[in-house]
């Protein structure tokens, strides 16, 4: 009788241990597969020295670094950018500027367009930089065509984000966020955004 | 015998129009930097070398001198200047091996035909529609490469201060359709 009870107790203990191990494993799996979410502030002057004529070398903001392929989501939360000395403000979609013709926004530079109608001024923009470039000695999150950083960002990869976007990346790297403006010396404010990734 | 000869001639005549190959010679002056790099006011647009109507293979052969340097370029170490091929990669390393080299960029037809297009650097806000630096590549004395669509090959010089450049490259450009 006593022997039977001891055997039963042993089985119960083994069963509980198994359950505990399974729960720990589940928790670990959940922790490693859950998407990360980071809150990021993008200052109104973080143009990355893109556009023309650019006045200040303010790097773009490192928003999220991923170690491999996955989906990145950027969501605008709050904030406004004041983009000129007159106090004009905009949300993350930016605004048109009919009086700005003759200048080049970062997005127009990325598209290979110049002397165009200017729109999306002050918009939230981004660029994904592969880890191999990001980790090079002398890298700066600035326009790589302006002879400013030793290693910079090639403008062709800069893209519009606005209120938010979702996109896939195929390799490790860092998402940088910035503002679609070329003269940022008179800018203020900024955007609060949430960035999630693998 | 006459029938065979006739058939052979007929096959040749039918086949000839299907062979799409042509070549031409262009001169690339030393000032044709396309205003890439840390440019100066003396720059000239890239030179239109060849326009093709579809996929195929382009072969470039060049000779001549720019400031005494051949199409492969020469070594130089600068701390403050960015050459066009460095701009293409978004870097400003101190030393390069291709100063004055012949460079090229293939621009799709849809872009070349846009109103206001000119073969100069798109990052300088010089014209309405222009060339993104990321597409520039080293050509040197000889290069053979494939294109997947209709477009134009432009050629230029890997230098940023163009105004004092002399000489140029004589270039033969050939195209063969698949």
3D structure, described in words:
- The complex is a heterodimer of chains A (198) and B (178).
- Chain A has 198 residues and is an alpha+beta fold.
- Chain A folds into 2 domains: 1-34; 35-197, Sandwich (Jelly Rolls), CATH 2.60.120.430.
- Helices cover 21% and strands 34% of the residues of chain A.
- Chain A contains 3 helices and 12 strands; from the N terminus they run αβββββαβαββββββ.
- In chain A, the strands form 3 sheets. In chain A, strands 1, 3, 4, 5, 10 and 12 form a 6-stranded antiparallel sheet that branches. A 4-stranded antiparallel sheet of chain A has the order 2-11-6-9.
- The model of chain A is unreliable at 1-9 and 26-33 (pLDDT under 50).
- Chain B has a single domain (20-176), classed as Jelly Rolls (Sandwich), CATH 2.60.120.
- Chain B is built from 3 helices and 12 strands; from the N terminus they run H-E-E-E-E-H-E-E-H-E-E-E-E-E-E.
- Chain B has helices at residues 2-15, 84-89, 109-112; strands at residues 21-29, 47-52, 56-66, 74-77, 95-99, 102-108, 117-121, 129-131, 137-138, 142-147, 151-157, 167-176.
- The model of chain B is unreliable at 10-19 (pLDDT under 50).
- At the A-B interface, helix 2 and strand 8 of A face helix 2 and strand 8 of B.
Key words describing this protein structure:
A: 198 residues; alpha+beta; Jelly Rolls; 2 domains; 4-stranded antiparallel sheet; 3 helices; disordered N terminus; B: 178 residues; mainly beta
Q: SSE order of chain B, as H and E?
A: HEEEEHEEHEEEEEE
Strand content of chain B: 35-45%
The CATH class name of the largest domain in chain A reads: Mainly Beta
The CATH architecture of chain B can be given as Sandwich
Oligomer: heterodimer
Structural topology:
The complex is a heterodimer of chains A (198) and B (178).
Chain A: H1 2-33, E1 36-43, E2 61-66, E3 70-78, E4 81-82, E5 89-90, H2 106-111, E6 124-130, H3 131-134, E7 139-143, E8 151-153, E9 159-160, E10 164-169, E11 173-179, E12 188-197
Parallel strand pairs in A: 7-8
Antiparallel strand pairs in A: 1-12, 2-11, 3-10, 3-12, 4-5, 4-12, 6-9, 6-11
Chain B: H1 2-15, E1 21-29, E2 47-52, E3 56-66, E4 74-77, H2 84-89, E5 95-99, E6 102-108, H3 109-112, E7 117-121, E8 129-131, E9 137-138, E10 142-147, E11 151-157, E12 167-176
Parallel strand pairs in B: 7-8
Antiparallel strand pairs in B: 1-12, 2-11, 3-10, 3-12, 4-5, 6-9, 6-11
């Amino acid at each position: 009788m006593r022997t039977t009870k001891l055997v039963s107790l042993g089985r119960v203990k083994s069963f509980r241990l198994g359950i505990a191990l399974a729960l720990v494993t589940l928790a670990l799996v959940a922790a490693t597969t859950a998407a990360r979410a980071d809150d990021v502030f993008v200052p109104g002057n973080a143009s990355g020295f893109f556009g023309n004529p650019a006045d200040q070398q303010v790097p773009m903001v490192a928003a999220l670094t991923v170690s491999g392929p996955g989906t990145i989501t950027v969501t605008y939360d709050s904030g406004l950018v004041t983009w000129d000395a007159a106090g004009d403000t905009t949300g993350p979609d930016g605004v048109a500027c009919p009086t700005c013709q003759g200048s080049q926004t970062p997005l127009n530079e990325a598209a290979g367009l110049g002397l165009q109608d200017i729109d999306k001024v002050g918009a939230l923009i981004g660029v994904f930089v592969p880890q191999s470039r990001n980790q090079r000695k002398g890298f700066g999150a600035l326009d790589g065509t302006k002879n400013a950083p030793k290693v910079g960002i090639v403008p062709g990869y800069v893209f519009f984000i606005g209120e938010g976007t979702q996109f896939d990346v195929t390799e490790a790297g860092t998402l940088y966020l910035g503002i679609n403006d070329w003269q940022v010396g008179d800018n203020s404010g900024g955007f609060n955004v949430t960035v999630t990734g693998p | 015998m006459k029938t065979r000869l006739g058939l052979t001639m007929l096959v040749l005549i039918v086949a000839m129009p299907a062979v799409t190959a042509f070549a031409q010679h262009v001169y690339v002056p030393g000032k044709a930097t396309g205003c890439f790099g840390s440019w100066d006011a003396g720059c000239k647009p890239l030179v239109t070398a060849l326009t093709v109507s579809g996929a195929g293979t382009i072969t470039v052969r060049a000779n001549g001198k720019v400031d005494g340097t051949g199409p492969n370029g020469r070594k130089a170490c600068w701390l403050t200047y960015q050459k066009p091929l460095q701009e293409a990669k978004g870097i400003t390393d101190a030393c390069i091996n291709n100063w004055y080299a012949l460079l090229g960029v293939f621009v799709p037809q849809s872009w070349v035909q846009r109103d206001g297009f000119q073969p100069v650097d798109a990052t300088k806000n010089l014209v309405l529609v222009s060339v993104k630096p990321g597409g520039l590549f080293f050509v040197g004395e000889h290069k053979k490469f494939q294109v997947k669509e209709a477009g134009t090959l432009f050629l230029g010089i890997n230098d940023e201060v163009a105004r004092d450049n002399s000489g140029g490259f004589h270039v033969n450009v050939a195209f063969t359709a698949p």
